[in-house]
Specification:
Length: about 80
Amino acid sequence: MRTPIQEDHAADRALGGKDIGVAKTLSGMSNLITGIAEMRNKVGSGHGTPTAPKGIQESHVLLVIDSAHTITRFVTSRLNELFA
């Protein structure tokens, strides 16, 4: 099911109005969202854990923060394009 976020009316109609590269990138973003949620459940403070468990590295934290930031920027930008 395509969402308004995925639709691109400028894309080639032969591709179903959806650019293949964009579709693959959005699929990857979906996997990122799942991974972020899994990390949050495991190491986040939302489940009563006051400190991060041993083994989590700064690089892991930066990966999650930067990924969430990129996803948020894309979704916000896309919604502005669609509803401006």
